[in-house]
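Re: the request from the purification team.
They wanted to know what the chain is likely to look like in 3D before they choose a buffer screen. I agreed to run a prediction and write the result into the notebook, where they can find it.
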Amino acid sequence: MGSTVLITGAGSGFGALAARALARTGHTVYAALRDTEGRNAPRVAEAAAYAAEHGVDLRTVELDVLSQESADAAIATVLAERPTLDVLIHNAGHMVTGPAEAFTPEEIAAVYDTNVLGTQRVNRAALPHLRDRRRGLVIWIGSTSTRGGAPPYLAPYFAAKAAMDSLAVSYAAELARFGVETSIVVPGSFTTGTNHFVTGGHPADQGVVTAYERRYAGLTDQVSARLAALAPAGADVGQVADAIVRVVEAPYGERPFRVHVDPADDGSEEVSDVADRVRAQFLGRIGLADLLRPHAA
């Protein structure tokens, strides 16, 4: 029998692809997105049409990660329709581009609110159920920017993804004794197949942007073009969805702690291997090696 999966930010990009891929392999998938009766109504219709065409159990649910009330309601909806929630996937995120100095503190806080605090709201809604069951899987969709090559003009997004990664690492240990497993899926810089760059925000202080443009003219376009050039032929954003499916379907207790999907190979995997090894060794040194794996119910 398939699992019941909820994935945030599933209207497009990694989220939509993963939702469909998981549904095709027999799971009941809740594609969570906000404003399902407004601007995202067409995406709700697309998901319903996909489910009907392929004979899969792909559903949508209203979930705005900026609202605890919305997160609580979404989890309640899932549990009213299904006996359990088995897999929670943190995918919702927002990207902004521009010189770091040009962003107001409030603008950076808004990026943090979506990419970091959003995961906390959903966790507070979903984890009581997973802890009570003594079973479950939490997947965090990270970014190679956390430890790999980090080009300029993406500082607020990179900082937020690094914070989310740190949160995921701490949660992994704190959930292990409840039998809840953690995996972090780390995509590289896919410049096509997602809406990150298309829908990304920009700083309000255009005076600062103009000052930087004198020294860094066309930098954003240069970075995008060179990132695209680094990707080998055949690099497909669908590889991220495939990796998520493999993690979900791996045996309980044997799922990888971190999986990189980085065709451009920006160095993140190499650095993460060291960091994760140091983490494991340190937990062993302080007598907490049992926190490296979930405790079976």
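For the purification team: The two ends are 19 Å apart (CA to CA).
Please add any questions underneath this entry.
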